[in-house]
Write a structure and sequence with these properties.
Blueprint: E1 22-24, E2 30-34, E3 44-45, E4 52-53, E5 58-61, E6 70-71, E7 76-85, E8 91-99, H1 123-132, H2 145-148, E9 159-163, H3 173-180, H4 182-196, E10 200-206, H5 210-223, E11 229-235, H6 244-252, E12 267-271, H7 272-284, E13 290-296, E14 304-309, H8 314-320, E15 328-333, E16 340-341, E17 355-360, H9 377-381, H10 388-396, H11 400-405, H12 416-420, H13 427-445
Parallel strand pairs: 1-14, 9-10, 9-12, 10-11, 13-17
Antiparallel strand pairs: 2-8, 3-5, 4-7, 5-6, 7-8, 13-14, 15-16, 15-17
Helix pairs in contact: 1-4, 3-5, 4-5, 4-7, 10-13
Amino acid sequence: MKTFKIGGVHPQDKKLTAQKPIITLAAPKEAIFPLEQHIGAPAKPIVNVGDRVKTGQMIAEAGGFVSAPVHSSVTGTVSKIAEYTDPQGFSKQAIYIKAEENDEWADGIIISDKLETKTSLDAKEIIKKISDAGIVGLGGACFPTHVKLTPPADCKIDSLIINAVECEPYLTHNHRLMLEKAGEVIIGTRLLMKALGIEKAYIGIESNKMDAVNHLRETAEKLSDFVHIIEIVPLKMKYPQGSEKHLIEAITGREVKSGAIPASVGVVVQNVGTAFAVYEAVQFNKPLIDLFMTVTGSSMTEGGNFRVRMGTSMKEVLDMVGGIPADAEKVIGGGPMMGRCISNIDTPITKRSSAILCLEKQKTVREDVLDCIRCGKCMGTCPMGLEPYLLAKLTEIEDWSELEEHYIMDCIECGCCTFTCPSHRPLLDYVRYGKFKVGTIIRNRK
């Protein structure tokens, strides 16, 4: 079975909610819409305090080509445009909307559960709809999708890969999405292929989700045609296979070089949730105003997979699924490997959200940090072939130029190094900080 070659680890699955169907949660009473929900320039408000807006209406326009607009997920009145506190405690700008009880949908949006398989739109029209809908990569990076669909002129794209790996422990919403919305995922994939002008796509899924593999294969056979060939590829379980570069290697055998983008080897990668959002945007004019996410934890009796509207606070989501368990010590935004501790659960769900994980105390206690014994385990598990122990040390002594020379910017922050370190050293914490400092220096240089 296919996988990538260098490094990787095998954390315990913990797919506690894999058998729980997706439930749509109620709309929030007050919705908060940050202007920075994507890589690139922040969105710019186009509404004022006191304005009444409809569900699906654009409330902030893209701030540039590498940017994405923001749409309201509720019908209501703009109460303020002010700062909010993000999950890590930083203050950023947001639009606050006091919601009405019922939705009044913006003009042109179609609400339908019927599977719409055909479109008369050409590639440019599909990309414009995706851009206008504010769709970004829903795998965590949040890169505006329309930008990925317009690669540099010197990059000839021949393949699309849909990332349905879901290799993070605990996360299961993509699994459920494939089981419950397989037709929409396949049509969304076909629309992305048409936008790119290509005839071949792959959907990569790890082998712990063979029910999804088989279901998508059956669905693809019914909905594919001679123009759109979609291959469902089961992959060996190994973290971090959801990383773009490693998924490309696992499926195609192609290697994306240091500093290069997937388009340089003829591939565009999109998340399976993004494919679904593209389907809704192109076929029904629905912007990205909600997403699928996992809310889970070993002590959560009502955890599961949910469809959540943007702007809903994490606290409100947790309250709707039984609240934070009494023995929970930390709330994590995302999975346990790459997610981050939430300092403020009043922060809203955004396009960056993928999961809320409540961990009990025994799983959050840090072991005493011991001296590095130069065992090399962090090097052996690093999927990028880096030297995490060295990067951590260079960060500690603030040798930024040496860090750049040792390719710290290639780090994908997967956490394999910390996971495997027998001395319990916080390698990822150091490397994240070092990467931030070096990245700032590089941007200032340019």
